[in-house]
Amino acid sequence: MFCIKNFSFCGVKTFTSIHVMNFSTGRMTLGAVNLKGRSLLTLKDFSSNEIKHLLWISGDLKQRIKHEGQNLPLLKGKSIAMIFEKRSTRTRMSTETGFALLGGHPCFLTTQDIHLGTNESTMDTARVLSGLTDLMLARVYSHSTLETLEKEATIPIINGLSDLYHPIQILADFLTLQEHYGSLSGLTVSWIGDGTNVLHSFMMTAAKLGVHLRVATPKGYEPDESVVREAEKLSKQFGTNLFLTTDPMEAAHGSNVLVTDTWISMGQEEEKDQRLKDFHGYQVTMQTGSVASPDWTFLHCLPRKQEEVDDQVFYSSRSLVFPEAENRKWTIMGLMVSLLTDYAPKIPLLKF
Question: Does residue 347 belong to any structural domain of this protein?
Fold first, then answer.
């Protein structure tokens, strides 16, 4: 049996979500989602149901492995090549430990270990690793590197971070918010900071989950124009609000979630002094939260610096940064399982 849910905004129908009743279990499931063999370079390429499916599988693995102590060797005999042009704590540890926990073999590769784009072309590297591994995650400077890998590889490619997008971070963020609030639709997320790859991924995802997005960036640090245009289309399609400003307090007004990120990314160290001046007034504090919703929480993808958010917020009960960091593991596991297997979740569908 199909259950068709019509969603509306201000009385106007905006989109339809199709769920399927499984008569053997009596549970509602997302209909016809199979991501096996796909790559994830940006969540722009994934539908609302596909993103929800990824979150559902992630929640399923977390429940069954962490809380129920089950052994799920779903990736036994599989291997993943983890290419890191840029260092990371959470991306490396979540992918490496998660893949191993599922029975597979992770291979960590820095620019000191392989010849990516130096003594060996990116095209050749993609073809070689396709014959040696089952999956590739690449954390790179340029998004074009990922596009070359995806074009030339015969295995799925995961964007572990690029200058344009950071999709695996956003999956963790939304699983964290789903766990905390019980559902996602109708929440308002406020981004206060730089127009970074993390913001771009929020903009490609939020509307598909029924989440409103308010963005404050200083002049000259706005998100990419093409990303803004796409986000505006998504907001119109899914009936959500997208609001851009240069005023942090205006962006925070009425919000459920305050989010920020580093103001000085790797490779921007020489811009530090100017950036600190330009971002004056953008630190997230309890004063910022005073205009937010009474149930407001805080997210940061880490590592964090005090100029971005003060200790009073960062270490408060409103801060979800450490559950958020842990969920990097469960969501990357959910993604890897989805791209490599036909695994179906066993827990009831999460409330979105």
Answer: no
Task: Examine the domain organization and report whether 202 and 244 are in the same domain.
Answer: yes
pLDDT digits (tens, 9 = 90+) for 176-195: 999 999 999 999 999 999 99
Provide the pLDDT for residue 348: 96
Distance CA 35, CA 171 (A): 15
Q: Are residues 188 and 308 in the same domain?
A: yes
So what's the pLDDT on residue 116?
Answer: 78
Residue carrying structure tokens 């610096």: 305
Is 30's pLDDT higher than 80?
no
Average the pLDDT over each of 111-120, 176-185, 272-281, 313-322 and give the range with the smallest value.
Answer: 111-120
Question: Can 301 be counted among the known catalytic residues?
Answer: yes
CATH number at residue 233: 3.40.50.1370
189: helix, strand or coil: strand
Range of the domain at 136: 38-165+329-337
Radius of gyration of the chain (CA): 20
Residue 259 in tokens: 């989010």
**Are the C-beta atoms of 286 and 294 separated by less than 8 Å?**
no
| Nearest-angstrom CA–CA distance, 170 and 202 | 6
pTM over 0.85: yes
**Residues β-bridged to residue 215:** 191, 244
Closest C-alpha to 348, from 94, 48, 76, 28? 28
Tell me the average pLDDT across 102-118. 88
Q: Apex CA 25: angle with CA 69 and CA 337, to 5°?
A: 45
- The closest of 335, 311, 199, 317 to 259, measured between CA atoms, is 199
Number of domains forming the structure of the chain:
3
Tokens representing 327 are: 């969920």
- Marked catalytic residue, from 3, 10, 107, 301: 301
CA-nearest of 285, 276, 278, 267 to 222 is 278
Contact status, residue 209 vs residue 182, Cβ threshold 8 Å? no
pLDDT digits (tens, 9 = 90+) for 134-168: 999 999 999 999 999 999 999 999 999 999 999 99
